[in-house]
Design a protein that fits this description.
The chain has 675 residues and is of the alpha+beta class. Among the domains are: 162 residues, no CATH class; 126 residues, Fumarate reductase/succinate dehydrogenase flavoprotein-like, C-terminal domain (Methane Monooxygenase Hydroxylase, Chain G, domain 1, Up-down Bundle). It is 33% helix and 18% strand. It has a six-stranded antiparallel sheet with strand order 14-13-18-17-15-16. It has a five-stranded mixed sheet with strand order 1-2-10-9-8. Helix 15 packs antiparallel against helix 16 and helix 16 runs antiparallel to helix 17. The structure holds flavin-adenine dinucleotide.
Length: 675
């Protein structure tokens, strides 16, 4: 990763509630230095916006630190004979609850996103004619995905960071956003700045390291809420800004929608076990407390061939999907893993053993696999005897990757679980990335632009496309070209007072117990299997926790812990928001879609296992009408308000006409600035 330039010195300071606080001014402030935040910063700077970046950790977050077997970038124009944007938009939004205009924008914008990354030096693989090599990922119908290998998004961060440094975008590292500062302007509230915490600017007169930014435009690009779940494949320390946004009156959308799938947890080395890790078909088993080994998949799949083929399919059907628990499909595997963990057993993948046979059936053989699986492995030349040899043949880097983190999968099995990997929902934005709070935008995983499902790689693409659009909008809105003249002092005093109320050395709550409560509650009650009663009671418990935090604050030992305390308080709030939305959805007869099965004895779908039907897992099917709606969540007076919102439509038949449409571009009318 490139070396950052020293951060600029503060030209001003403000005395707020007795603290002497450095004050910076900029036209636009980007919170987060992942692929999405860096993209928006670079694009703004190129357009003459005075932009700065703050980041909790310059090379932290999911773009820089996480991966999968391959990190995938979803692109247009790489389908065999070119692509059709409408068709591609259809695939992006196929899971439902996604705005149709957003899906189209992501499809059209992906060409520019990819080409500009290549221009910046992203080494995407090509054929001899310059075509991008591509493949098909989950939730897509054709090969629109491409990859530079397991570190694609890290390389995206690298090339974008190099560009940001070249363009001299001021960068404030180890700086955590904690409060959005707003001011009422007429009937409208709008952002005027941000309060952040930076350990390095702590002084006797500023023991918490408070730092103020005055900015008329704020771009939230702080990623997803990785810390919300105990079982998580996010890198450590990913909090996102959902709680921060809620406190500022910003609406969230689709926060009931996530991706869960198998991977190694972040306590060790967080990584998705998709792609070749499972396509080589390792043996999967569990171990109980006494050390006894269990061939638990034999309780779920009927034949060795069925089990082995579904292990393979986790390679490209990676996220759990309720419907794939039916008919002995691949999500039965996720279910089986979760149930083993619930029994207190640990689950492993062994690359030195082929899958054990289902009792009474034929042994595993590469010749006895479902057609799609057999053909894939034959085409790949993966005929080696053991899974580890097939992996060495198909993707040797996959072995090296774990070795780097002191896991030698050639010698020992790998423990894994079903983990939270992505939040599809987030801040409710329009087609320019604008939130409902004037001046505040959201991009990347912070924004709730995905629907119920998304094609693999669509997250990275969305961050690039909307990072650019947000920059275009802010540049067109001249407000961000000049330092804000709005005073931050009044909202800063209120923000500091809230911080002082929260930080209470004598509080009964500590960061560790809040983390433990929130994460356990979310993993145990809002994972892949949900019931109406367990979600409702989890919601009540989350509400009680937040009430108690408001009353008693959170304890801390050192001033330097203030940022983490605030992040956990905001995470507790965000988790209540998710549970409130999920509770509302289930109470209003919402069915199982995407990442969650809504289990209900009256449900119309029932998964079967090799041992027979599983009535305890009977679930409600998805209702078609839910595909046309999203749930919007807003915090008002400490209460969550939830309302359904119809998805925005896109007129597939509308045609552009050059002379008619050019003036809107020339005058900036396309940016809808008066809205
Ligand atoms: C294991 C795994 C595999 C994945 N594979 C794929 C894939 O193959 N293809 C795909 O498209 N997507 C994939 N995703 C999802 C994708 O990686 C993320 O959605 C994407 O990288 C998010 O980028 P971002 O820029 O929005 O956020 P991030 O990259 O998470 O960056 C967030 C930034 O915000 C900063 N930050 C956070 N909070 C604060 C704060 N309060 N104040 C200041 N700074 C803050 C962080 O330090 C970081 O710099 C995967 C995710 C995981 C976990």
């Amino acid at each position: 990763m490139p070396r950052l330039k020293p951060q600029p010195s503060a030209t001003d300071q403000l005395v707020v509630s007795g603290y002497t606080v450095p004050l910076y001014h900029c036209g636009a402030l980007v919170v987060g230095s992942g692929a999405a935040g860096l993209r928006s910063a670079v694009e703004m700077k190129r357009r003459g916006v005075d932009v700065s970046i703050i980041s909790q950790s310059a090379w932290g977050g999911t773009s820089a630190c996480s991966g999968s077997d391959k990190q995938t970038l979803h692109t247009a124009n790489t389908k065999d004979q070119g692509d059709d944007f409408q068709e591609m938009a259809g695939c992006i939004g196929a899971g439902g609850a996604m705005d149709e205009d957003t899906a189209y924008i992501e499809a059209v914008g992906s060409i520019r996103a990819m080409a500009s990354l290549q221009y910046l030096g992203l080494p995407l693989p090509q054929d001899q004619s310059g075509g991008t090599l591509r493949y098909q990922t989950d939730h897509d119908e054709v090969g629109r995905a491409t990859s530079c290998g397991p570190r694609t998004s890290r390389l995206m961060v690298k090339v974008l960071a190099e560009e940001a440094i070249r363009l001299e975008v001021p960068f404030f590292n180890q700086t955590t956003a904690v409060k959005i500062l707003t001011q009422q302007q007429g009937t409208q509230s709008r952002v005027v700045g941000l309060l952040a915490l930076q350990v390095r600017c702590r002084t006797q007169k500023n023991p918490y390291g408070l730092v103020l930014f005055q900015c008329p435009a704020l771009v939230l690009a702080a990623g997803g809420p990785g810390e919300m779940y105990r079982d998580s494949v996010f890198p450590n320390g990913c909090f996102g800004t959902l709680g921060l946004a809620l406190e500022a009156g910003i609406e969230l959308v689709n926060i009931t929608e996530n991706q869960f799938g198998i991977g190694t947890r972040r306590e060790g080395f967080p990584w998705n076990l998709s792609g070749t890790y499972v396509q080589v078909i390792p043996h999967i088993y569990s171990v109980d407390e006494q050390g006894g080994e269990h061939h638990f998949l034999a309780d779920y799949y009927r034949t060795t061939q069925e089990m082995a083929s579904n292990i393979f399919r986790k390679g490209y059907q990676w996220p759990f999907h309720a419907t794939r628990m039916l008919d002995f499909k691949s999500s039965l595997l996720d279910l089986a893993v979760v149930r083993e963990n619930q029994k207190g057993r640990r689950v492993f993948m062994d690359f030195n053993r082929n899958p054990q046979a289902i009792p009474g059936d034929l042994p595993f053989s590469l010749q006895r696999l479902d057609d799609d699986v057999y053909h894939y492995l034959s085409n790949a030349g993966a005929s080696q005897k053991q899974p580890i040899d097939r992996l060495r043949h198909m993707n040797p880097l996959a072995i090296e990757l774990y070795k780097r983190y002191k896991k030698d999968i050639t010698a020992a099995p790998l423990e894994f679980a079903v983990n939270h990997q992505h939040m599809n929902g987030g801040i409710n934005v329009d087609t320019w990335g604008r939130s409902n709070l004037a001046g505040v935008y959201a991009v990347g995983e912070a924004a709730g632009t995905h629907g119920v499902t998304r094609p693999g790689g669509a997250a990275l693409n969305a961050g690039q496309v909307f990072g650019t659009r947000v920059a275009e909008h802010i540049a067109a809105d001249k407000a961000a070209r000049h330092f804000s003249t709005s005073a931050v002092e009044v909202p800063a005093v209120a923000a500091v007072a809230a911080l002082e109320t929260l930080l209470d050395t004598s509080s009964r709550h500590g960061v560790n117990d809040i983390r433990q409560q929130v994460q356990a509650r979310m993993s145990d009650h809002a994972g892949i299997l949900c019931t109406a009663s367990s979600v409702a009671s989890a919601r009540r418990d989350a509400e009680l926790l937040n009430q108690s935090i408001r009353r008693h604050g959170i304890a801390y030992r050192r001033h330097s812990e203030a940022a983490r305390v605030l992040q956990w308080q905001q995470m507790a709030l965000a988790s209540e928001a998710v549970l409130a939305a999920l509770d509302y959805f289930i109470a209003n007869n919402g069915g199982s879609r995407g990442a969650r099965a809504i289990c209900d004895p009256q449900g119309d779908a029932q998964p079967d296992s090799a041992l027979g039907p599983m009535p305890e897992l009977r679930f409600r099917s998805e209702r078609v009408e839910d595909k046309q709606e999203q749930l919007v969540v807003k915090l008002d007076n400490e209460e969550f308000h939830i309302r359904p919102q119809s998805i925005r439509r896109f007129d597939r038949d509308a045609k552009t006409f050059f002379e008619r449409d050019w003036p809107a571009w020339l005058t900036g009318a396309i940016y809808d600035l008066n809205h």
